[in-house]
Amino acid sequence: MAKKLKKIPAFFYQSESGNEPVREWLKALDDDDRRIVGEDIATVEFGWPIGMLLCKPLGSGLHEVRSSIASNREARVIFTVRDERMILLHGFIKKSQKASKSDLDLAKKRLKDTAD
Question: Which residues contact 78 (CB under 8 A, 6 or more apart)?
Answer without folding.
Answer: 58, 62, 63, 64, 88, 89, 90, 91, 99, 103, 104, 107
